[in-house]
Amino acid sequence: MKKAWIAAAAMSALFFQTGAAQVVSNASKVMGVEGLNSIHYYGVAQNGNLGQNNNSNQPWPMAGANDYVRTIDFTQPASRATWMNYAVPVTGGVATLTPGQQNITPQNMTWAQQLEIWITPWGFLKGAAANKATVRPRNRYQVVTFDAPIKSPSGKSYQVVGYINERNLVEKVQTWLENPIFGDMLIETEYTHYREGANGLKFPSQIVQKRGGWPTFTAYILGADANPANLQQLLAPPQGGRGGGAGAPPAQPAAAGPTSEKLADGVYRINGAYNALAVEFADYILLFEPGPQNEARAQAIIAEAKRVIPNKPIRYGVISHHHFDHTSGLPAVVAEGITIVTPEVNKMFLMNALSAPRTLAPDSMSKAGKKPVIEAMTGDKRVFQDATRTFEVHLIKGLPHADGLVIGYLPKEKILVYADMFNLPPPNDPVPNPPVVGTMVFLDNIDRLKLEPERVMSIHSLNPDRLTTVAEMKASLGRK
Question: If both were cysteines, with which of 56, 209, 328, 414 could 349 make a disulfide (CB 3.0 to 4.6 Å apart)?
């Protein structure tokens, strides 16, 4: 009986693979992929900034990518895209044009890079033909699935799923990529409004890619060429380096042990590119900004807090705001059993994201079998207090940068800790024009809350690195 079941399963798999080959062949003929080794296309686009939305429940901010040009060589595989950004700084001022680029080569064979080739309509069909794809009908689609030849950190194959419609056009492609916040993050790209170019090549005139549920790339394609004669010229990066760009994996700083600075009895600044504040209470430790950058940084912060304040558990971790450069280390915070404290606006987003499966790259949280514990602030203020200490958490109001951004304040020690509102202006321009919006909002909130800080600590190290004062912030705006 067992042998019969195995034989039936093998026959079923063979049937699905044979059917997939026919579906892929039909789509390849219709789309002009047969004999296609490279492609060059152009138009206008937008790039989204994953994890930097102004509200954790709203879309990622998009920036224009004018003169978007992309070339792909499927035989290497390699790709080069270029564009021009034209944007007004968030603090005001004159808009500037800056170039952007993305270069994918055989040398950067991470899935974060290579998926940008294989989830294109033409790359998907080529990948499906080469990697034992299977097919299943679903509504009006033939759903074709194959495993990419690149393995995830866990050793699991990255899966690619394409939806081929009744006209034999690739309409949607999905894959998954590890992400510190979203876990196994779905990347879904839709291809619509197909047009026909030279030599029977069909290309979508609209492309929309989503990550984390919101668009991170949109493009309106004006034209496409199959097998361009000047392929090597189109792929050649400028002199001086290959460049980066959308789709490049974030750099992971080395997990060097941080130093710390005693600001007051039981109060320590844990130093680094992203600082943290450790505050001692009678029977526990509180961390302000416990999980910035990545897991390694969060683990280093936790270890240093335990070193300077020994024999007490870290019970609470207050995050300044939800942006991913300030929260990508939260899996290590959850693994430690620390309760994350944030305004209500962020709770559901973080709970859903941190509870997602993490099979591609298991992190310390999934390895520990821990679930996130998130405490939402009730109202605009949360006070931690015992017989030894008072620490206040206040919601900042009116800030364009991020809803749900909070500051921490020690009223007895008159120390205030913040993120992303004030930077020291350059020496030759002590009064920026126009004024920095974040600084104005910060000072207005300090007045509104009737706080009286004597020392102000930034999560991002100032230049030169030190604590600042309210007087310096006012001076940067030309105030007294």
Answer: 56
